[in-house]
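Me: Here is a favour to ask of a fellow structure person. Could you put it straight underneath, so I can go through it closely?

Assistant:
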Amino acid sequence: MLAKPVIEHLDSKGFELRLFSRTVNPSMFVNDYDIVQGDVFNPDDLNKAVDGCDAIHISLSKLDEKKATEAILKVAMGNGIQLISLVSGCTVSEENRWFQFIDNKFQAEQMIMNSGIPYMIFRPTWFFESLEWMVRDGKAIMLGNQPNPYHWIAADDFARLVADAFLKPEAKNKTFYLYGPELFLMKELLEKYCKAFYPEIKKVSVIPIPILKLIALFTRNHELKEAAKLFGYFQKVKEPQISSEANDLPGKPKINFEKWLELKIEGS
């Protein structure tokens, strides 16, 4: 969802790229890239991936971000890396470290900031693309009532801003919040999404977090258990309010929800 558009935007800006992942393969892309498959916790794999590079962009999924970032930094320091960036999250902060998922991200950020290598931390909010995760088997299902609105952003907008930041020396050693131009409740946006792509779905179902936890317990479904924890967290935590002056982004998001729908329809 995030790595591919960032790769494409960095490519369009003229950067020479090497892709490192457990699963990446050439069929995912139109252009040819230098691809290294491997395990982020294997120093030999990491050294092979980082050798000859000037910068590292970290975009992790379903991994312990603290441990993975620690492993990457060890290799980065021995390979003369001049810039390192990390995709984090908008609610990552000291006050939210009570939630393990956020604590791992917070510690990953701190390690990078204290490494001595110039850095950029990107803290995006919710992505329009994640709405598709909430539609399964002909039903639109929301986990928890999710009362907090967020400035949802398009992955392509996010990717463009990340790529632009790599071109600007003044972006070094800064943390950026990446918010879209409009504020939406999750249920409101999911209803709009279904109306555009799944008109047969007339209602968004809401599963309360306590019921979700019980289902996960009785079915011994680990993935559902983790989803209950994550959505339970977002049910409690609000998106931080950040002034445009304080954020100092190297550009502004341009894609609102209606434009994103148009682009998605054109792409399909």
About this structure: The beta strands are 18-21, 34-37, 55-58, 83-87, 119-124, 135-136, 139-143, 174-178, 204-207.
